Amino acid sequence: MTRTIELKATPPLGPILAKAAATGFVRKGRTLPDVRVVQHGVRIDQGALAAYDQVCGFPVTHLVPSTYLHVLVFPLQVSLMADKEFPYPLMGSVHLSNTITQHRRVDALEVLDIEVRVDNLRPHFRGAQADFIATVKVGDEVVMDEVSTYLFRGQKVPGEVPPKADEPEPADGPGVTWALTADLGRRYAAVSGDVNPIHMHPLTAKALGFPTTIVHGMWSKSKMLAAVENRLPERYTISVEFKKPVLIPGKVKFVADETATGWNLVLRSSRKGTVHAVGTVVTAGADGSIS
Fold this sequence. Notes:
alpha+beta; eleven-stranded mixed beta sheet; 23% helix
């Protein structure tokens, strides 16, 4: 039977992250819990939304970027990872990819209901991976679906690791260069609530195995979406795979190639050409279906 965790308000992420970190290494389960985390009656803070828009490059309007809906989903994801039945530690987990389908634009004054569950545990060549599946509704209408895939390094699950598929070389060529300041991780943390130490300061990032502070993957996705959003219809699916961490301060090059079905998006190091993130945007067809 599915167990439901209902959040009465959005919890502060700092204490939940600390709880998940403190309890994760004593867990012994190897199966995903049949749990859903829900939050009803979520209202968007207008000032918080405007601050997010400014950090990520969206115009400040009454419309909510689909990646901001992820900001509202994220506390439910972390609450599920912090649950006593969740088998893997949060510390050391890696956000591999994120797919968002926006079914229609959301107004900042609309009241939202959010649900998150976890499914599809499977092996990865570096551990175990699972999908955190989120649904955002206005009343009975689904306005956004999201799948976030996380890697839990060093964990073992039954099954064969699928062979790595040959991937085409991501698009390159003319693009726009973004200069990323050393405080970008702290600025995005302030508007998203994601206070993971690897994003906050060079010393805490080094203590966790990184050469210096790294950018949140969802900032990269948000910035990429902001660059093309004014050319998208109301309904679309945007998928991004996070390849290599973006170290800050630094510079990255963003390339967007239009295709018959939408856009191919690439974020590279402007100096070495290293691919940091690869994405696609698939837009809706004339009949309202995603092509």
